[in-house]
Design a protein that fits this description.
Largest sheet: 5 strands, parallel
Number of helices: 7
Number of strands: 7
Helix content: 25-40%
Structural class: alpha/beta
Radius of gyration: 15 Å
């Protein structure tokens, strides 16, 4: 039985406004911050449809973000996440690698569930593979139209 949903943040819930930008979102944020103050929303956009879906899921089970670094802490986006997610976990802060299957066992322990009771979604196939090896039911995010029905099926 699924008791928690865990999602990646960058390129799942947060995307660059420039569709041709292929670099990391944390890297882009660091570059922008180095230039001084900037308008976060002039460079990034939230996946509102998926955010609303996660908010609905959160009425039934806890929903968490497990992300690589810190972009989710930016003052422009953080308040929009607080009402949806039970907690935000950062691999960098926890000293974990999202490529390591043991990481997902540690995350399950931190949120108080068994790995088999967690649905995890990430845009990176490497991370999805690691999460599956770690015991979670992990699915690669490609689009909302693809991931939402899959998550709904897993939650039944």
């Amino acid at each position: 039985m699924i008791k928690a949903l865990v999602t990646d943040f960058s390129r799942v819930l947060l995307h660059p406004l420039d569709p041709n930008y292929s670099g990391g979102l944390n890297s882009l944020q660091r570059e922008l911050e180095a230039q001084g103050e900037y308008d976060f929303w002039a460079h990034f956009k939230l996946n509102q449809e998926l955010l609303e879906f996660y908010k609905a899921v959160g009425q039934k089970i806890p929903v968490y973000i497990f992300t690589s670094e810190y972009i989710q802490d930016h003052p422009a986006v953080k308040p929009q996440l607080e009402s949806v997610f039970t907690a935000v976990l950062s691999a960098a802060r926890l000293g974990l690698s999202k490529k390591d299957p043991e990481t997902y066992q540690i995350i399950a322990e931190k949120i108080g569930v068994q790995t088999a009771d967690v649905v995890y979604t990430d845009d990176s196939l490497v991370n999805v593979t690691a999460a599956n090896k770690g015991g979670m039911r992990a699915v690669q995010f490609e689009t909302n139209a693809q991931i939402i029905p899959v998550i709904k099926l897993l939650l039944v």
